[in-house]
Design a protein that fits this description.
By secondary structure, the chain is α+β, with helices and mostly antiparallel strands. It has 2 domains: 91 residues; 134 residues, Immunoglobulin-like (Sandwich). Helix content is 35%, strand content 24%. It has 3 helices and 11 strands; from the N terminus they run H-H-E-E-H-E-E-E-E-E-E-E-E-E. A hairpin with a 7-residue loop joins strand 9 and strand 10. Helix 1 packs antiparallel against helix 2. The radius of gyration is 63 Å and the shape is rod-shaped.
Length: 271
């Protein structure tokens, strides 16, 4: 709208100027006519005085009229200019429009969902990473695992040999069956020794195998076997009846010590 106002102002001024020029032109024609008539009238002695008076009177009237018209034109120009300026000023004045205050909405931050890390299977290289039941660990080119856990009753042991020892009050005897597979070539051999095994649990006490239980079949002995072959045999330990979290450890003379969890969930009772 400000551009239209700026264009309108020069248009009004030009119109006023045309009026002023027309008045001045008409005045000029009148003056010329008056001068011509005066020249003619002045050619006679009688008319010189009269002509002079009339000329003076007409000149005064013409000047007065022209002055009035010029004053009116100037007044119109001033009025038009002031009006245009006022209009432009009003249009240029910024409109006081109330800016709405934005409403702050408390958007809850999204809850970060932790991405579960894939749990790696314990490698059996430490107590904290003991291999769970059903898994095997490798040491000295042998894959070792716990195959079964049994608890022989005293009657079972006495029937096998009357001199087999009985556990102390509050303890029990566990037979942990170990399976070992030789991972070497078929022409190479592996060797396993029961003395390299120990057992410990929640009490933190290391239990060594019982060596004086006899006449019970499938005991693990010192064995040498070829690659690809598997041997099994039990190892007997006396532990507290309330002890949990049992771990069987194998520590060969030359090789890596490994740890195997011993589950007490499915203990076979030998009667």
């Amino acid at each position: 709208m400000s551009e239209n106002t700026e264009k309108a102002q020069p248009s009004k001024v030009r119109k006023v100027l045309r009026v002023v020029l027309a008045i001045v032109g008409g005045l000029f024609v009148c003056v010329c006519a008056l001068v011509g008539w005066m020249i003619y009238d002045m050619s006679t002695p009688e008319g010189q005085a009269t002509a002079t008076e009339r000329a003076v009177q007409r000149t005064v009237d013409a000047v007065a009229e022209a002055t009035a018209q010029v004053y009116a034109s100037q007044t119109a120009v001033v009025v038009a200019t002031n009006s245009a300026i006022a209009t432009a000023t009003e249009l240029a004045r910024p409109t006081n429009t109330a800016t709405p205050i934005p409403t702050i909405t408390n958007t809850p931050l999204p809850t970060a969902t932790p991405t579960p890390k894939p749990s790696a299977t314990p490698d059996g290289r430490s107590r904290e990473q003991a291999a769970p039941p059903g898994f095997t660990v490798v040491s000295e080119d042998m894959a070792l695992g716990v195959a079964q856990v049994s608890e022989p009753t005293q009657d079972y042991l006495q029937r096998a040999n009357m001199f087999n020892p009985s556990p102390e009050q509050g303890n029990r005897t566990l037979m942990v069956t170990v399976a070992a597979t030789c991972l070497k070539d078929a022409n190479d051999t592996c060797a396993i020794y029961p003395s390299d095994f120990e057992l410990f649990g929640s009490a933190g006490i290391i239990h060594r195998r019982i060596i004086n239980i006899v006449s019970v079949p499938d005991e693990l002995d010192d064995v040498e076997f070829f690659g690809g072959a598997t041997v099994e045999g039990w190892l007997a330990f006396e532990v507290d009846r309330d002890e949990t979290d049992l771990i069987l450890t194998y520590e060969p003379l030359f090789g890596t010590q490994v740890y195997l969890q011993v589950s007490l969930d499915d203990v076979e009772i030998l009667r």
